[in-house]
Specification:
Structural class: mainly alpha
CATH architecture: Up-down Bundle
Mean pLDDT: 96
Strand order of the largest sheet: 1-2
CATH topology: Four Helix Bundle (Hemerythrin (Met), subunit A)
CATH superfamily: Nucleotidyltransferases  domain 2
Largest sheet: 2 strands, antiparallel
CATH class: Mainly Alpha
Number of domains: 1
Order of helices and strands: HEHHEHHH
Length: about 140
């Protein structure tokens, strides 16, 4: 899939820019990051991975709201960021979002997927950094 197909299939569509939703999405991202850290402290690695990814997802979604975009696909969010924000967001963070999107899917639906501590530590670190980058872009 590419970004053009996301729009053709209405997995991404234009809406009015909504700074309140963008702000709220960052607040949700920070809450999910806190929950990821709490889950890590309790060694709930699956939950930590899910919360870490969800934190990054809501950070990315804040940019879409700012730009006047509505998403219906996690894949399309990644494609949008690669196209529109590759100069503002470090590429490794966009790749991390995509990688943890796939791991989240496996953690939820896979039969043999095992979450590793080093992966969730990276998810937390990248989610923290992603939030900070997005906050600067929202100003």
């Amino acid at each position: 899939m590419n970004l053009e197909e996301c729009f053709e299939k209405r997995l991404l569509r234009k809406i009015e820019p909504d700074y309140e939703k963008a702000k709220r999405s960052i607040e949700v991202a920070m809450d999910k990051l806190k929950k990821a850290k709490d889950a890590f402290d309790k060694k709930f690695l699956d939950a930590c991975l899910l919360y870490g990814y969800t934190s990054m997802f809501h950070s990315a979604r804040a940019l879409l709201y700012k730009d006047g975009m509505q998403e219906k696909s996690h894949v399309c969010i990644v494609l949008y960021l690669k196209e529109k924000y590759s100069n503002e967001i470090p590429y490794y963070l966009i790749q991390s979002l995509d990688s943890f999107r796939k791991e989240r899917h496996e953690a939820l639906y896979g039969l043999d997927f095992e979450v590793r501590e080093k992966d969730v530590m990276l998810a937390i670190k990248d989610a923290e950094e992603f939030i900070e980058v997005v906050k600067k872009l929202l100003k």
